[in-house]
Amino acid sequence: MSDPQSEALFREAEALLPGGVNSPVRAFRAVGGHPVFVEKALGARIFGADGREYIDYIGSWGPAILGHAEPHVVKAVQDAASLGLSFGAPTEREVRFAKAVIERYPSMEMLRCVSSGTEATMSALRVARGYTKRSVIVKFDGAYHGHADALLVKAGSGAATFGNPDSAGVPEGMVATTATLPYNDVPALKALFSARGRDIAAVIVEPVAGNMGCVPPAPGFLAGIIELCDANGALAIFDEVMTGSRLSRSGAQGLYGLRPHMTCLGKVVGGGMPLAAYGGSRQVMQCVAPLGAVYQAGTLSGNPLAVTAGLVTLERLDAPGTYERLEELGARLEAGMASALRETATPGCVQRVGSMLTLFFHPGPVTDFRAAAAADTARFSRFHAGLLAGGVYWPPSQFEAAFLSLAHTEADVDRTITVVRTALERSRG
Ligand SMILES: *Cc1c(COP(=O)(O)O)cnc(C)c1O
Question: Residue 157: is its pLDDT beyond 90?
Answer without folding.
Answer: no
